[in-house]
């Protein structure tokens, strides 16, 4: 992957103001209702496309804006600040297009990326299986090469956007005896015969971002549905996940920012012992800690973005940014629930939804433990002068 052109002409502060104004006007107001109804926000996804936000870091030659990862993070953060569920659908789209960007042939990039970048084509990413989560090499979905194409059988679970997506990148074993090296990535368009879906899974949070179990019953795909080459799927999946983990960090930072805003607001309005609770040092300490954690997480995500855009090895930076931001987000949201007292436990309060929504961030796209293992795995090769 070559380095992306950096957007030295884009004013990120201005870009943030534009996306925030849009998110405040159109996304934030209905977030609680969508959490209740669990309805897929198709109209808002179209609005994100109309705002030109679906292919921010996709190179211009493939129909994207060709901007830096930092610009993409600004958009993800602002969408997540307004509605984490919408941000989850949005980032799953970016995760779904990454395999084509990093592993597709020129022909596949030309065929798929313009539609993905414009938002006309919504993407999904199907890796996890009932018995293969952190350990992707244990997947059981198989693809057999026949004269008429690839025949796929098996199942995937917890797949975001699966039924709504126009294109799902799905991973299967083309050589079951070869473990990780036997995995191949396939482009699976919507409506392919032999695919069926469970009902949307009932979840603790991000409830309007549906996930499904996907069943593959002798699904036949053309030979050119293989993304890149046979046996490269494991590498493609991990590379795509590393790149997309920075988006999860941005989601965390967006939710954390909203939580901090809510905490600060509530602390100035709520009076006890004749004073706004903000005047109590115990509350100030909580808010100070939230602010410090949020700034540290943002700086870390920006650093990982720059590592990505420089085309450097991203594994350690991506894991550090996801780990730092998602753990900080959980702690910030929890402290803001504390600032709200009993009101923060009530379904009607926004912070209660944020508390449920943010919990997934420490699990999907690699749990916090898996991030730490990746970070530790890189330790022997890090020179102390890099600190
Ligand atoms: C809402 C939601 C949306 C999702 N969207 C998608 C999607 O779009 N596409 C997709 O492919 N997947 C998706 N996933 C799946 C998600 O990525 C997995 O849930 C995640 O990777 C963890 O896998 P698992 O659930 O099987 O947990 P497991 O791998 O079974 O892990 C269980 C526990 O064991 C720990 N553990 C496992 N191995 C080790 C180890 N070696 N050392 C230490 N601890 C370990 C984990 O950290 C965890 O605490 C989604 C999941 C959810 C809940």
How would you sum up this structure in a few lines?
This protein has 387 residues and is an alpha+beta fold. It has 11 helices and 9 strands. The structure holds flavin-adenine dinucleotide.
Keywords summarizing the entry:
single chain; 387 residues; alpha+beta; Butyryl-Coa Dehydrogenase, subunit A, domain 1; Butyryl-CoA Dehydrogenase, subunit A, domain 2; Butyryl-CoA Dehydrogenase, subunit A, domain 3; four-stranded antiparallel sheet; 14% strand; disordered N terminus; binds flavin-adenine dinucleotide
How do the strands and helices of this protein lay out in sequence?
Elements: H1 12-26, H2 31-37, H3 42-50, H4 69-82, H5 84-103, H6 106-118, E1 123-126, E2 142-146, E3 149-160, E4 167-173, E5 183-189, E6 195-197, E7 211-221, H7 233-269, E8 271-272, E9 275-276, H8 281-309, H9 315-340, H10 350-358, H11 368-378
Parallel strand pairs: 1-4
Antiparallel strand pairs: 2-3, 3-7, 4-5, 6-7, 8-9
Helix pairs in contact: 1-4, 4-5, 4-7, 5-6, 5-7, 7-8, 7-9, 7-10, 8-9, 9-10, 9-11
The structure holds flavin-adenine dinucleotide.
Keywords: Branched-chain amino acid catabolism, FAD, Flavoprotein, Oxidoreductase
Pathway: Amino-acid degradation; L-valine degradation
Domain Acyl-CoA oxidase/dehydrogenase middle: 124-219
């Amino acid at each position: 992957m070559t380095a992306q052109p950096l957007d030295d002409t884009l004013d990120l502060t201005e870009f943030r103001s534009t996306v925030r104004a849009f998110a405040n006007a159109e996304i934030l107001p209905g977030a609680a209702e969508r959490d209740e109804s669990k309805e897929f926000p198709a109209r808002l996804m179209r609005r994100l496309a109309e705002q030109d936000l679906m292919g921010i870091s996709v190179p211009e030659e493939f129909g994207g804006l060709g901007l830096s990862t930092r610009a993409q993070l600004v958009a993800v953060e602002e969408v997540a600040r307004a509605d984490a569920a919408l941000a989850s659908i949005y980032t799953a789209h970016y995760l779904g297009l990454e395999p084509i960007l990093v592993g597709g042939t020129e022909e596949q990039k030309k065929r798929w990326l313009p539609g993905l970048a414009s938002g006309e084509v919504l993407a999904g990413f199907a890796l996890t299986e009932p018995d293969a989560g952190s350990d992707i090499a244990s997947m059981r979905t198989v693809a057999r090469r026949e004269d008429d194409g690839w025949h796929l059988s098996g199942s995937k679970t917890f797949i975001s956007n699966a039924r709504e997506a126009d294109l799902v990148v799905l991973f299967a074993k083309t050589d079951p005896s070869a473990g990780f090296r036997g995995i191949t990535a396939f482009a699976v368009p919507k409506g392919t015969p032999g695919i069926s879906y469970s009902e949307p899974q009932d979840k603790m949070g991000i409830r309007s971002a549906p996930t499904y179990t996907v069943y593959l019953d002798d699904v036949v795909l053309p030979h050119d549905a293989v993304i890149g080459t046979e046996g490269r799927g494991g590498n493609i999946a991990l590379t795509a996940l590393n790149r997309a983990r920075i988006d999860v960090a941005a989601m965390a930072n967006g939710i954390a920012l909203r939580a901090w805003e809510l905490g600060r607001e509530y602390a100035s309005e709520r009076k006890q012992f004749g004073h706004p609770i903000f005047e109590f040092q115990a509350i100030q300490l909580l808010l100070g800690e939230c602010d410090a954690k949020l700034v540290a997480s943002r700086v870390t995500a920006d650093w990982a973005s720059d590592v990505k855009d420089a085309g450097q090895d991203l594994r350690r930076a991506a894991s550090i940014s996801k780990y730092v931001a998602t753990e900080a987000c959980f702690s910030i949201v929890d402290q803001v629930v504390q600032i709200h007292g009993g009101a923060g436990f009530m379904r009607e309060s926004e912070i209660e939804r944020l508390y449920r929504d943010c919990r997934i961030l420490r699990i999907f796209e690699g749990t916090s433990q898996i991030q730490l293992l990746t970070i530790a795995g890189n330790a022997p090769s890090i020179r102390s002068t890099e600190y």
